[in-house]
Amino acid sequence: MSNDAATATHTALTIPPVDGPGAEPPGFGIGASLPPADARAKTEGTFPYAADLWAEGLLWAAVLRSPHPHARILSIDTTGAAEMPGVRAVVTHEDVPGDGAYGRGVVDRPVFASELVRHHGESIAAVAADHPDTARLAAAAIVVEYDVLEPVTDPEKAFAAEPLHPDGNLIRHIPLRYGDPDITGDVIVEGLYRIGRQDPAPIGAEAGLAVPRPDGGVEIYTASTDPHTDRDLAAACFGLEPDRVKIVVTGVPGATGDREDPGFQLPLGLLALRTGCPVKLAATREESFLGHAHRHPTLLRYRHHADAEGRLVKVEAQILLDAGAYADASSESLAAAVAFACGPYVVPHAFIEGWAVRTNNPPSGHVRGEGAMQVCAAYEGQMDKLAAKLGIDPAELRLRNSLSTGDILPTGQTVTCPAPVAELLRAVRDVPLPALPKDSPEDDWLLPGGPEGAGEPGAVRRGVGYALGMVHMLGAEGADEVSTATVRVHNGVATVICAAVETGQGFSTLARQVVQETLGIEEVHVAAVDTDQPPAGPSTHGRHTWVSAGAVERAAKMVRTQLLQPLAHKFGMSTELLQITDGKITSYDGVLSTTVTEAMDGKELWATAQCRPHPTEPLDESGQGDAFVGLAFCAIRAVVDVDIELGWIRVVEMAVAQDVGRVLNPSQLATRIEAGITQGIGAALSENLRTTRGVIRHPDLTGYALPTSLDAPDIRIVKLVEERDVVAPFGAKPASAVPVVTSPAAVAAAVRAATGRPINRLPIRPQAAVATTNS
Q: Where is this chain compositionally biased, Polar residues type (predicted)?
């Protein structure tokens, strides 16, 4: 589930005070629960999304997509479509300059399929017409002759299958080697785990508007989360220089990774350039499911070795990621999966094999917590098996093996950031459990299945499960993480210019708070984002909380120096002896006292700054290397009720303790944690984009079951550990990815406890939750 707003009216979500019991945060600046500036517009329905845009002379686009997951294209006849009244242009692969391919990292995906179709829903052609219905009819009138081929849908068979792509079927292989391969433990447990295909399911389907420019270029208005990369990809596909393509970011209706696949934007630009008219596309929900990337379905085999006291000795694992037809972010996802395959535990010996392969399944890519979520479900399943075999309490077993600052990951990297894993686990373990439901008719709504459920109260069993999760922050393996921001102040109003896209993660609110804190100016505006601004990078892995807010802070401090230097010089003191509080400038001795507005005296001050974290390095041929800038951790205790006769599951409560570094906005942080847990519950219980021989079975929100407010449990934030990461601006850590990673594993653990079943597949099928006995 990708809605980052609070979803459950009945959710009991609490957050500890920032500065002690009952403490009230300041009215603005860092630590305040500052509301989003666009909250009212979104609530009233006046916020401008790409689907709402209009332009004079507007044409409408439609895309023809393949009904087959694997086929050879014998011919494409666009004659009938081009001759239809109202049709202005039809474009295919022949109209794309150069090799017509794009991709983030690996350029392997065609704008339009030419010789081969490699997945169900792949783009074949696009049409521009004067009415959306005409465009759809014209797209349907394009005649494509296919030679249907046998699809490769089993990632295990992709190794021996004929190459599906000129680059081959293997995208990346990471063999991690750490320690002694011959060592064994006193106790060994094994497991096979399968993780399904979760869709990001954005609140609003993809939409965009392309407008041709007089210089022969084009402007594309869309909900991009990485506008500069999208601009460069588009320019290459259009045969233009990057400065002749402009991406203007519209309102983003929810994002949990890469919000906009360029495959939705590129046909628009081609059609606008061909017709000389503005062209708009508003995808249907089916097109959205077919076109964008999903979470990697994953097959995991594990073997854990431990001593008689339950301390881990060695972990062996094989991890296979199904990338679908194209590489996209599979290399990065595999690196995270392999590096975190042992979880936040001390493992002296680890041997992990990881592969990402191409198939004819739907494409996979960035979805929040990619790689880390899949392995968390598997290694926590192994920890439950190990606890059961040794007769040790599952929480105690985890405590005996928990990672701490100074420990070494299986990649050889030392954990230098705060890692309060044991503290987090103790916090959720020790909080009182929720009350048991009463066995009476008035409490039927508490039963799995809801008030109309067919189950009997006597068949309901309660289970409690634990999970520990970890994610990396920012990019990894040598990614150049840099962001640029400008802060301008004039007439008592500050403006932030930064190409960091507000995707629901709260960057715009945080940027306002940073400037308020630094300059004492309450009225702060964040400018709209486009590619005329310096790049800020993608909106993934909490980057903008770190690098973009860090750039805003540096720019604001430079403006602060410009503001204070004349006063300091006048009074013969350094700027360090002056402070700004509540819009007032005062000196340490009280001699100087004035307002920021008076000190500005009508001047306009501005500064531009960059933030770039310390560099990382790629994993080597043995999976070793300092690949990550920082790590974040989370502990969750899940309480579930399971009808062991029908397999219905109700999540009663999720108690969470999280390593946040520093609370910057309490309300916003609570919302992010709630949203992450709810998305994780969807992955645990219902979200699975099912396919049959590579064809998506139900590409709609009827067949794809998102959790609703009735599915959201009580969420208790029992502890937020504010141990600041000294290398991060403000000391804060990103908050939303790690609960997504951890919550599916916690739910699975609780269902195991309630049913005695192994629960090795996500989402959990009802038949898997039917207990073998009623005891």
A: 1-12
